[in-house]
Amino acid sequence: MSGLLIAAPASGSGKTTVTLGLARAFADAGLELVSGKAGPDYIDPAFHASASGKPCFNYDPWAMRPDLIRANAALQAGEGGFLLVEAMMGLFDGAMDGTGTPADLAAMLDLPVVLVVDCSRMSQSVAALVQGYRCYRNDIRVAGVILNKVGSPKHEAMLRGALEAGGVEIFGVLGRDPALALPERHLGLVQAGEHAALEDFIAHAAAVVRRSCDLQRLAAVAETRSAPSAAPAVSRLPPLGAYIAVARDRAFAFSYEHLLAGWRAAGATLSFFSPLADEAPAADADAVYLPGGYPELHADALANAAQFRLGMQAAARRGARIYGECGGYMVLGEGIVAADGIRHAMLGLLPLVTSFAERRRHLGYRRVTPLTGSGFPGPMTAHEFHYSTVLYEGDADRLFAVTDAVGEDLGQAGLRRDTISGSYMHLIDVAPVAP
Q1: What is the dihedral of CA 376, 382, 386, 391, to 10 degrees?
Q2: Residue 187 has what pLDDT?
Q3: Residues 357-366: what's their mean pLDDT?
Q4: Which residues are catalytic?
Q5: How is residue 236 annotated by DSSP?
Q6: Structure confidence at residue 227 (pLDDT)
Q7: In this predicted structure, what is the pLDDT of residue 233?
Q8: CA–CA distance, 186 with 202 (Å, rounded to integer)
Q9: Which of 103, 136, 299, 421 could cross-link 344 (Cys pair, CB 3.0–4.6 Å)?
Q10: Record keywords: Ligase included (predicted)?
Q11: For residue 250, how many other CB atoms are within 10 A of its CB?
């Protein structure tokens, strides 16, 4: 397996656009390419999948055990594949405790790093910045740079002169291009499924990358990754049931591919249904999973999805295990108050009302310990990111005890009634055993 980590000094440098362009360009050239996203991001992986034509896995060096990261890389790319991973934030940015950085991931998987640098507000100073990144840690290799948002040939000449004098390899130079900007929402990019011209955008990004970057040289650098040891046998989060119906559409788009792959590897059968299309979960499923997403943007449609509601009620009556996280958790509740203050009735399977009328950000890694009767076997890692607030929680058992990345006690979270449960936590992996 060959591989690269596309990183940057900071968010907003253009690494997502560069990664999408590279993924499509390499796939079009016939490489057996798969892509990954560092960290817990729920949105970028769908863009990656559109660019590469294959599912994108998350690789989270804080929330995932190293053996799971290595096993997922082997599962996803196999022998002879090309794993193209996009970093999150800056190369050395991590969780509150300072761990879980993209650099940590590069070290775990021995991925050469290509640094995407936004040059719009600098010239020769780029050399000092890049040299600092090259020397900051000796267990990773910053192989070179792709210069982004370069203003003119003279600007490029100044950048090249400073970098080449220091022995920095330049893999590509991209000019300023307003067509390479993606729309954003409060959780990051607007979802791939909502981007009306996504294919045109990716095709344009690929054309720019083919014209502006040395793809052959990048592929050669990717092949310098050392041969990995045999993929470890690793435990994974167990499936919710033997046959799991998974909600999947624009309201429920935030499911982790590594989690679904792990359920399949454990022998579970998965089927997918769209609540927005008023589809019910499979009538013979013994578990239903409502992942996160943007239900608040589709609250009226969900409130009027009669077949979805009847199907979920039927699943509850037959004792199917139903689990919702974040957006899915809110939909299991009695109502969602949208940003305009209008309340929309939800499934009513949990005593919960949430609101977007008064936004409050909740963000961070979590360690969750299942409480008695939860149905989960042991401590897990998770991520929380939402702007909704809880207006009402009624009589139900709590689901998890929660701490943050530095071990601060956040109390108990989530609700459970019989076989129905949910929380704001996006579950990621089995928590590592404390030393």
Answers
A1: 30
A2: 45
A3: 90
A4: 326
A5: -
A6: 58
A7: 82
A8: 22
A9: 299
A10: yes
A11: 17
